[in-house]
Task: inverse folding
């Protein structure tokens, strides 16, 4: 089997398992809120109630789940921020395969804990371990970079985008089905977590059997000392934004890469917060259950696949910056429509525009970043982008959920829409290297 398709299948299986939980978050928090003997959740909720009385405009206790969801989403991504760049650098030193298998094993352990998370503290522990282990996406992107030449790289990155789209089609749909149809006498998470365990186990076996190491020994980083030094820098956001571990770029290329990184960070900071609270918005405003959430993700996933398969992979070299700018321009009215939606038609018009931008922006940023650096630095550059993305996702959900919790969904989404002007302005001033 051609190795880029091995990487594609592995990424799809990982995202299939990862996205099972997406339509379940509101109901999972309702489940823990209903357990009077769950000391951890009750303690958190009582503390939040007291804080809300002091600062928040809303007295709706159901909004506590938005805040808790945002905090857990941020914690997951913060741990991913700490681990993804370190693991990306380790894969430059030790090879992709052993590090990929290590990350996948950690993910499997997190799903095993999820399957027995009758109490909130166990669920929290599963998300912590999952966040630490969730570096395999950056490794898969590095593998795609190993396997392709620059002129064919956008097609490989489109495969990554298609894997994300398919994951978002199938994962949330199966998560909703398994939670509603198969677990009538069990907790909402029981059967979806079993499916996640099975998929990850199959994925590990698949990688062991079919993936051949794509980074030859002669192309790997040679110095453990340098890796340790990089590891310290990778925890420092200032070092990451300055790309200090990367030594091969001239001043012009480095400045362009920095601007793309700033835009990527700010875009994901705003986007991730609004994206994470979307399931709570439709749960509270339209009373969506898990099946309806699954249908929403199915719509988003199918549309993303069509856009990425029909458009993104055909974007010509040198045109990715312009494509990302157009997508962010379209994203601004999408969130305004979602903010003001009073019926399903307006909601889905907003979701359509939102999905177009979701399908285009990050694959374009990824393709642009992949043209910079030597072969033994590409895993590090990819890891830096993934780490900055994880840092943005660590901050975004908390920020957005705090605004949502305090002032309501409409205010949060309109503020977010306006904020997209900032990364858009940076991109408009950026000149990138010829791809």
Result:
């Amino acid at each position: 089997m051609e190795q880029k398709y091995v990487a594609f299948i592995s990424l799809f299986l990982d995202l299939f398992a990862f996205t099972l939980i997406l339509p379940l978050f509101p109901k999972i928090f309702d489940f823990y809120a209903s357990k009077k003997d769950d000391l951890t959740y009750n303690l958190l909720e009582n503390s939040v109630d007291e804080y809300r009385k002091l600062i928040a405009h809303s007295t709706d206790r159901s909004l506590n789940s938005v805040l808790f969801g945002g905090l857990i989403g941020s914690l997951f991504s913060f741990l991913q921020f700490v681990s993804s760049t370190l693991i990306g650098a380790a894969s430059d030193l030790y090879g992709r395969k052993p590090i990929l298998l290590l990350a996948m094993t950690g993910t499997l352990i997190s799903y095993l804990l999820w399957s027995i998370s009758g109490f909130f503290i166990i669920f929290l522990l599963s998300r912590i371990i999952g966040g630490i282990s969730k570096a395999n996406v950056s490794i898969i992107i590095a593998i795609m970079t190993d396997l392709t030449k620059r002129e064919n790289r956008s097609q490989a990155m489109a495969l990554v985008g298609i894997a994300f789209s398919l994951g978002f089609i199938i994962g949330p749909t199966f998560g909703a089905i398994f939670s509603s149809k198969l677990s009538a006498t069990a907790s909402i998470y029981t059967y979806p977590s079993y499916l996640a365990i099975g998929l990850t186990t199959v994925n590990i076996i698949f990688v062991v059997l079919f993936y051949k190491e794509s980074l030859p020994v002669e192309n790997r980083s040679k110095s453990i000392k340098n890796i340790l030094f990089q590891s310290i820098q990778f925890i420092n956001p200032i070092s990451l934004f300055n790309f200090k571990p990367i030594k091969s770029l001239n001043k012009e290329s480095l400045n362009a890469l920095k601007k793309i990184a700033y835009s990527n960070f700010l875009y994901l900071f705003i986007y991730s917060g609004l994206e994470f609270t979307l399931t709570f918005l439709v749960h509270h405003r339209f009373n969506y259950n898990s099946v309806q959430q699954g249908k929403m993700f199915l719509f988003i996933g199918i549309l993303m696949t069509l856009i990425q398969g029909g458009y993104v992979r055909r974007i010509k070299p040198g045109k990715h910056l312009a494509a990302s700018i157009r997508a962010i321009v379209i994203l601004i009215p999408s969130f305004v429509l979602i903010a003001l939606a009073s019926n399903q038609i307006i909601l889905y018009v907003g979701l359509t525009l939102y999905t177009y931008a979701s399908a285009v922006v990050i694959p374009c940023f990824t393709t642009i970043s992949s043209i910079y650096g030597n072969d033994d630095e590409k895993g590090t550059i990819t890891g830096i982008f993934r780490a900055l993305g994880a840092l943005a996702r660590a901050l975004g959900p908390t920020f957005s959920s705090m605004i949502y919790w305090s002032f309501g969904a409409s205010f949060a989404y309109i503020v977010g829409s306006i904020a997209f002007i900032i990364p858009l302005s940076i991109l408009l001033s950026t000149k990138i290297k010829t791809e």
Residues 251-285 form the longest helix (35 residues). The chain has a mean pLDDT of 85. The chain has 18 helices and no strands.
